[in-house]
Amino acid sequence: MTSLSLAARAAPGHKSGMSPDSLPNMKIAASTVVGTTLREHVLMGMHAAPNATGEFTSLINHLSLAIRVINSKVRAAGLAKLLGYTGETNVQGEEVQKLDAFANDVLLNVLQRSGHCGVIGSEELDEAVFHDHPGKYVVRFDPLDGSSNLDCNIDIGTIFAVLRRADPGDAGSLADALRPGREIVCAGYVVYGPATVFVLSTGHGVHGFTLDPNVGEFFLSMPDIRVPDHGKMYSCNEGNHARWSPAVQRWNAWIKSEDKAEGRPYTHRYVGSLVADAHRTLLKGGIFAYPADSKSMTGKLRLLYEANPISYLLEQAGGAATDGTSRILDMKPTSLHQRVPLVIGSKAEVATFASFVRGER
Ligand code: AHM
Ligand code: MG
User: Which of 163, 227, 264, 291 could form a disulfide with 319 if both were Cys (CB 3.0 to 4.6 A apart)?
Assistant: First the structure.
């Protein structure tokens, strides 16, 4: 860790009880004065990688810029008349909020200008976007997750995943975007909550950064996040109970039933914004489940834009992510807007859910 000598920083003619000469042994950690920024964190990763070119670092810096621009609009949405709908519907048939459209435009614009993205996929766009320049990376994102919560001032967020293109010399293709989650090289999400928190993994653990709004920088606030082995909370939309399979209903009855020795019933928490529910599950453990039901036969959440990045982060932090039977990161996408059942959390709770699905309980 770098350290600063107080003496080295003392101005000439310094008038305190101690002269600068008496200070040289008083070393203080630089990080106790100014914390590690997101920029520095990514730069340190670059210095540790033998063949790094700086492109990935630059890509993350561009993503961070887009996030800060979106954050400033989210914070002022009520004042800037950005709440409400555009009057259009997206490819999923959902009404588009003005802020959904804004966040999508900001990410597209900033990523295109970065020059590092050959292919971009967005939850808000029908088709993938291909670029003329040979960008090395594919970025897939949900620009504003949970936006149906916007009008009520409930946490919302941005989710993204970065993959390396197989051959950046080729023209970008749909195949570049339809790659399994295990090929992700970096994923993250941002929660626009009481604080703006950026959670990131580049394949070496999961780290959380909090935006200092006065400085305009993300500072490392949660290094090396680990999902607890067990948790006390479960999270799901119980309004769907009647539409669930008998196996999921049995799991739901089990997790609510009383057994003090086994720590049941679990506490129920459900925000309805994936970023918020996933963030709590990452920090506190337990389980979040959005299973398939008779209305959303293949699940509700999108494999590329939501399930993949969140699953990558959960696994990087020592947790698990499944659709109930298979690992999410092993699923080969067949279309850009494919939906999947999603079950994430502590390994123990996810394994128990899977045992119900297999009919063992
Ligand atoms: P979206 O806002 O990007 O369309 O995301 C869908 C949201 C997720 O954030 C959340 O987990 C889920 O839909 C909530 O669904 P429901 O309202 O059916 O509980
Ligand atoms: Mg979403």
Answer: 227
